[in-house]
Amino acid sequence: MATKIPERPKPTLASVAQQAGVSAPTVSKVVNGREDVSPQTRARVLAVLEQAGYQSPLQRRSAGSAGGAGTVVEVVIDVLDSAYMIEVLNGILQFAAAADVETLVSVTGRGASDVPSPERRAQRMLDEGRAGMIVVTSAFSEAQLQAFRRRKIPVVVIDPLNPPSADVVSVGATNWAGGKAATEHLLDLGHRRIAYIGGIEKAECNQARLHGYMAALMARGVTVDPQYIVSGGRFRRESGVAGFQELLKLDPLPTAIFAGSDTIALGVLSEAGRHGIRVPEDISLIGFDGTKQGAESVPSLSSVAQPLEEMGRAALRSVLRQARGEVLDSHRVELATHLIARDSTAPPAA
Question: For the whole prediction, is pTM greater than 0.90?
Answer without folding.
Answer: no
